[in-house]
């Protein structure tokens, strides 16, 4: 998927997650915090590609990453997602006192990237280091910008028409975990 596709898809996912009340923090979050965070999160997995937006900015990270794991390797796995969550909460947030809505939106953006790449024929190795790739190739042409935009618009329209009573919440345990560090600082 193209960078534009990932950015659009992440914003659509954020609107959907907010409407579905996936986490209380996202439901009451500040859009001026969440939009930049979800956009950044949606670009992070492609740090393993030196030609990507972040890969070009941080070649010192992208070059060794692409050599070691290849494109759509480690950074496109649940292990990397969990690693980012732990690193962010234990190292980054305590030092800069970053609010919880930024953290939740960043993770959502990251997750939206993995989901979006699953919609392409190459899929992603969600269970890396296992090699099995997960794919649901709805976007079967390369650089299919029209298709990418269409899916994002579809999600946005779906989100806008979701009745409030359909709001879901992540299992209580995950929510408690996500809330834990935030509550500590309040
Ligand atoms: Zn990717």
TrEMBL record:
Pfam families xref list = YdjM
Which keywords appear in this protein's UniProt record, sorted alphabetically?
A: Membrane, Transmembrane, Transmembrane helix
Q: Which domain of life is it from?
A: Bacteria
Question: Could you list the residue ranges that cross the membrane?
Answer: 149-168
> What is the protein's name according to its record?
Membrane-bound metal-dependent hydrolase
């Amino acid at each position: 998927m193209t960078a534009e596709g990932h950015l659009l898809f992440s914003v659509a996912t954020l609107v959907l997650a907010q409407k579905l009340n996936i986490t209380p923090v996202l439901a009451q979050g500040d859009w001026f915090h969440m939009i930049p965070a979800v956009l950044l999160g949606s670009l992070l997995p492609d740090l393993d590609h030196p030609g990507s937006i972040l890969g070009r900015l941080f070649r010192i990270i992208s070059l060794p990453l692409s050599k070691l794991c290849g494109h759509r390797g480690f950074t496109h796995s649940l292990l990397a997602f969990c690693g980012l969550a732990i690193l962010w909460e234990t190292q980054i947030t305590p030092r800069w006192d970053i609010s919880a809505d930024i953290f939740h939106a960043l993770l959502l953006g990251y997750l939206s990237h993995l989901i979006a790449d699953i919609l392409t024929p190459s899929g992603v190795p969600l269970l890396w280091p296992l090699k099995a790739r997960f794919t649901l190739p709805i976007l079967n042409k390369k650089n299919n910008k029209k298709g990418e935009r269409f899916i994002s618009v579809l999600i946005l329209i779906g989100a806008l028409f979701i009745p409030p009573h359909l709001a879901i919440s992540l299992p209580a345990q995950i929510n408690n975990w996500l809330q834990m560090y935030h509550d500590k600082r309040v």
